[in-house]
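Justification of resources, computational component.

The compute hours requested in this renewal are based largely on the per-chain cost of generating structure records like the one below. Each record pairs the submitted sequence with a full structure-token output. That output is archived, and it is also reused by downstream analysis tasks.
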Amino acid sequence: MIEAERISCLERKLEQAQSQLTDLQLTVAALNRHWAKPAEPQDVHFLDVALHLQLGVRYAMGCAVPGDIAEFGTMAGRTAAVIAAAMPQYDRFCPSNRQSLHLFDSFQGLPAASSEVDRASPHVQAGVWGAGTCLGISEEQLREICSRHLAPERIRTYSGWFAETLPKVPTGTRFAMLHIDCDLYQSTKDVLDYCFSQGLVTPGAAVFFDDWNCNTARPDLGERRAWMEAVADFKIMASDCGEYGMGCHKFIVHSYLSRAGSL
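The structure output for this chain reads:
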């Protein structure tokens, strides 16, 4: 009996792994049809990022975390398209609630470094993160790419700097998943401060950081510092879910203190 139970457990794990792989293969295959430079099998970093973002969508929708999904910093639209392609796959988990995808980008590239923290960044000093760098596709192109996978009425785009566009989020909006690809400390801080102070982050939400290990992974720079400060400022209680890709990181938020009180 014990051996039979062990085999049954292994079979269930195998089915789960095959399901995840199939989902990822379907997503990447669908996206590759639309990218000028498709993801290659050896592009281990992007494939791992795509898998974790897809599983993040599955977690948010499958584990009944209320709220929409947001990405801050869309650049070429590849990760936005991964998320858009994943969402319809998991609608079955919440048939009565069709989440929206909120996409934020300046569509002008990065802003000039305005804080002392960002001016100390090796990437800023080297000109890699200078004003206008990391310029990707247009807002119209982003909507067109994502609309190939997700109904257009479920996609909201916000053109401009985060501090200026976040107040335009519709009243009552909450986020069950946030993908933060802001590069700079100040841009990341603008996103975290607004989302947590206004109570936009649902308890249970997954927060993904794309540039966690940039700046030689120094905790006093970039996304690491912005998150550390947000945790202190808003008394955030979160589970550290570890790294993925080349240097990304994710958390699940359990509770925090917004302007309106504890969540």
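Residues 2-32 form the longest helix (31 residues). The chain has one domain: 42-262.
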